[in-house]
Structure formats: C-alpha cells, structure tokens
TrEMBL record:
Alphabetized InterPro entries for the sequence: 7-in-absentia-prot_TRAF-dom (IPR018121), E3_ubiquitin-ligase_SINA (IPR052088), TRAF-like (IPR008974)
Organism: Heracleum sosnowskyi
Protein name: Sina domain-containing protein
Boundaries of every Seven-in-absentia protein TRAF-like domain copy: 121-218
SUPFAM superfamilies per UniProt: TRAF domain-like (SSF49599)
CDD domains, per the entry: Sina
Stated family: Belongs to the SINA (Seven in absentia) family.
C-alpha cells in the first residue's frame, strides 16, 4: 500500500469481507473486487487503520531555502530555514503582521547587481517572506514586491496580504494570496504575481529631482476565516 503523507492521513480506508484493505479511491481501478482474494467489494470502512494513519508522525518533504540573492543549496524544515535565514543570510526578522519597507537606490535606471531584500515576518504563528527587488522586464527595469508563505500551498491559501506604494498624491495597491515557498522565487517573480512598479512611476513616487529612487512599500497580512453560520470569509488580523 503506497501513498503520500496527505493520502495516508486523509483518504478513506475500506476492507473486503475477508479483511483485506485498500483505499476507497482504488475500488474502480480493481473493478470493485478485492485485489487479494477477488471477492466483491461492498462499503466496509476500516476505521482502525484510518486511526493508525491519522496518528502517524511522518517526516515532511524538506523545503528549499527561500533566499533569492544567491543560489543557496540549503534545505530543511521551517524552523531550520528560519534560523538559517537569520544567521547565514542576515535576514531582517520581525514579529508582526504589518510592514513598512523602504527602498533607496541612487540610480533608478540600473538593475545590475540589484540589492536583493528579504524580510521575514512571524505572525499567526507562521512565517512569511517579503521580497523586494529590481529586474529587467522587456526593455525597462521594474521594481517588484511579493510575499511567500513558509509552508505548503494549501495552508498559504488561508492567508491574504496587501501592498501599497505611493507618493505625490498617487498610489498603487496590490492584494493577493501569498505563494508557498514550494514555488521557487524565480517562478513567482516571472509570473508577475505581486506588486509591480514601472520605473517611471517609481521615479514619480520618489519625488525630488527624479534622479534617486526612494520607495516606501507598506502592507499587512491577515487570515481568512469562514463564518460557520453565513459561510462568508471574514478577515482576521493578528493581535
């Protein structure tokens, strides 16, 4: 009997009249006959085996380091990666769900050797990585901010975030769901899944003589919780 960790913990187990077990989703593959004794299958739950599967503490697939400034080969679980980001990459660590990120660059036309900026936030007992960087999009440099969740995609969907940048009486806003660090930094960036600021707009927001980039990106993270009575999702801010 093979299966992933999620399969073992969530799928229904059934058994034939002789006690042979299989996943309920496999019944059609064996034409509703037990693959061991070939007896016809009804619908007999194997609750004992389901309980055993639920109690298993199995190792999770390790995560890759989410730092984007270099090809880091470190892998590990979330606590290990948080320590790694703090000690080896000197990541900026915060325990809050709001952010106020300032990015200053002397020449807004340059994207070569752009500073990779990563800030880690601990809120709702989870960790999130805020990325901010410059890169070339077509013929023009752009600036991008996006959030990644340190965990799997199915858990990332429980959270939302917003980003805002502005100046001179104008502002851009972005709202979305953080991507899991299972998705590489490059994959998220290349999909443009975040707040993208064109160079001309970034310079306009910076004010002054338009020769220096001064961007302030603000935002927050919240949790989506469904109201059991109405079925409507309600945003929950961290305390």
């Amino acid at each position: 009997m093979n299966g992933s960790i999620q399969t073992l913990k969530t799928l229904i187990m059934e058994q034939c009249h002789n006690g042979h077990t299989l996943y309920s989703t496999c019944k059609t593959r064996v034409h509703n006959r037990c693959p061991t004794c070939r007896q016809g299958l009804g619908y007999i739950r194997c609750l004992a085996l389901e309980k055993v599967a639920e109690s298993l503490e199995l190792p999770c697939k390790p995560y890759n380091c989410p730092y984007a400034g270099s090809e880091c080969s470190v892998v590990g679980d979330i606590p290990q990666l948080v320590t790694h980001l703090k000690e080896d990459h000197k990541g900026d660590m915060h325990t809050r769900c709001t952010f106020n990120h300032r990015y200053v660059k002397s020449n807004p036309r340059e994207v070569e050797n752009a500073t990779w900026m990563l800030t880690v936030f601990n809120c709702f007992g989870q960790y999130f990585c805020l990325h901010f960087e410059a890169f070339q999009l077509g013929m023009s440099p752009v600036y991008m901010a996006f959030l990644r969740y340190m965990g799997d995609d199915e858990d990332a969907r429980n959270y939302s975030y917003s980003l805002e940048v502005g100046g001179n009486g104008r502002k851009l806003t972005w709202e979305g769901t953080p991507r899991s660090i299972r998705d590489s930094h490059k994959k998220v960036r290349d999909s443009h899944d975040g707040l993208i600021i064109q160079r001309n707009m970034a310079v306009f927001f910076s004010g002054g003589d338009r020769k220096e980039l001064k961007l302030r990106v603000t935002g927050r993270i919240w949790k989506e919780q469904q109201n059991q009575e109405s079925g409507v999702c309600i945003p929950i801010d961290c305390s």
